[in-house]
Amino acid sequence: MLVGRLTRDPELRSLPSGKHVSTFTVATNEYRGGGNPERTEYHPCVAWDRLAEITGQFLSKGQLVDIEGRLQTRQWDDDAGKRHWKTEVVVASLEMLSGRSKKEYAKEAQAVADAPDGAPTIAANGAPNEALEAVVAM
Hints:
The protein has helices at residues 49-58, 102-114, 129-137, and strands at residues 2-6, 11-14, 20-31, 37-48, 64-77, 83-96. The protein has 138 residues and is an alpha+beta fold.
């Protein structure tokens, strides 16, 4: 299990086979008292198929996530014949720990900005805020 923050927005691609793949990096910090991180590690991650689509749609740079998966090492030779290795986390499950992504907040902020004066506002769950206030008051 890794708990950390995305260092950049995920990169979502579709392969010629029709499969979807998403790549992103998660930064984790090691603390040893004093509150300042002693060491930061960067973990390249790859998600496939539906999980790849979800990461591309809902994750963004800076978001806190909990990732579970397995380590996989790939090797390849470049055009010059030099051999390369890359170890990455193949994501099996993912939990978003910091709520909605910045993309969702931006969409909501734009909708509010575009709404005419006096228009009812909508809560995150899609219900008018008046309905949400009634539920909270119960």
